Amino acid sequence: MNLKSAAALEIERLESLHPKGFDLSLDRIRRLMERLGNPHRRLPPVIHIAGTNGKGSATAFCRALLEARGLTVHVHTSPHLVNWHERYRLAGKLVDDDLLAETIARVAKANNGEAITVFEILTAVMFVLFSEHPADVAIVEVGLGGRYDSTNLIEKPACALIMPISLDHETYLGDRVELIAAEKAGIIKRGFPVVIGAQESDTALEVLSDTALRLQCPLTVYGQDFVALEENGRMVYQDEHGLFDISLPVLPGRHQLANAAAAIAACKAAGFPVSARMAEEAMLNVRWPGRMQKIEGGKLTRLAPSGAEIWLDGGHNPGAGIVVAEALAEQEERFPRPLFLISGMLNTKDQTGYFRAFEGMARRVYTVPITSSNAGAPVGELAARAMQAGLNAEPISSIEHALQLLKENWDPDEIAPRILIGGSLYLVGEALELNGTPPT
Fold it and tell me: On the chain, which terminus has fewer CB atoms closer than 10 Å, C or N?
């Protein structure tokens, strides 16, 4: 048995004991924290990040900025794409598999078989790891919502950063943006700094701002206190202290300027000054697997038509669809190619809303199953949702089959296609595993 499988088997055992996916409450993890000696109270300064879209990119930008300053950074994100240990970075490095397995077993033993969700166990693992290994700062991404997310035991965040809010996880968070915003605002703690990223909804912004002001928090808002623009192929960040004229982020899409700006503002609000040199270095070094990630080699490129451009993106709601479609439109401006989608989605998502963003752009959608989740949408039903959004769609048995079909039918005299594999982080993880290029 290798070390990786030890951690994976430990989690599989937990999933069999605690099959419930979501049960929004803090009572169980509070009980568990007490048994573990309250490790959540022994963390380095924490930047706590919530939001519907962009929180992963903001996490990546914060990490890049802080590391450019020479700091060591713990990072917690979810879900993982290929391997469980992707969720935990200790001082910049992915957690060792045997350490992860040992910590999971220790936390599970402390829980003593009582009712709990696996995500709560894994969050407790994060608190234990981050409390027992030194770092200058920790970045913690919320799993679901905010108020009752198990990461919300963080009592004194150096900064709470809330990224764009839109409809997603309506079953758990509510079906109106103001309800979702109220849940995300639950990570705001009285008197501690709050940064609000670019919001699509004035209603969401009002809910977040009102909460911060009511709790007497120092408040910094995108569009009011700071902003980022593209000028002459450069990024200009400006706040009350001045401006930076720096390279554009290497992460594709104009939306990444606002995400980068929110991260700069959050680092500053958390007490970590950002220089132009740091910002420049961060924009060039930032990495975020599975979000507008271009595949440069591996099995996927061999299966696709010769010269095809392959992108992966795990966005899975209408807001994310719009952002991805805009990023692909930018690529189209630079180098026109026919666009094809290979899409798999969970059956809990607004599939038609997601696909609607690509109307008039995509030549065809191949819908494929998600094999790593029991909640994957049947490919026929997903194709029907894509057609409702005005797209040509065809159900296919797998990513490989879709790429092979494209290759077999591609006219070599036509410009090679641009292919987006996406609609779910689960599907992106499967694509990365198939390609032999898991995140590192």
Answer: N
Q: Which amino acid is at 132?
A: E
Q: What is the pLDDT of residues 203-221, one digit of tens each?
A: 999 999 999 999 999 999 9
* Band (174; pLDDT cuts 50, 70, 90): low
- Please tell me whether residue 401 adopts helix, strand or coil conformation: helix
Distance CA 73, CA 62 (A): 9
Q: Pick from 56, 265, 73, 283: which is nearest to 160 by CA?
A: 265
Close Cβ partners of 432 (under 8 Å, ≥ 6 residues apart): 81, 82, 289, 290, 312, 438, 439
Cβ burial, residue 22 (10 Å; 0-12/13-18/19+): middle
Domains of the chain with bracketed CATH: 3-285 (3.40.1190.10), 293-435 (3.90.190.20)
State both tokens at 410: 């591609």
CA 392 remoteness from chain centre: 28
Q: Enter the tokens of residue 225.
A: 């206190």
Residue 30 vs residues 35, 61, 77, 132: alpha-carbon distances, Å: 9, 30, 20, 18
Give the strand order in the sheet containing 234-239: 226-231, 234-239, 242-247
Coil/strand/helix, residue 90: strand
Summarize pLDDT for 356-379 with one digit per residue, the tens.
999 999 999 999 999 998 899 999
pLDDT at 47: 99
Instruction: Tell me the two tokens of residue 311.
Output: 């992108």
Q: Phi first, then psi: give them for residue 388, nearest 5 degrees.
A: -60, -30
Residue 191: CB atoms within 10 Å:
10
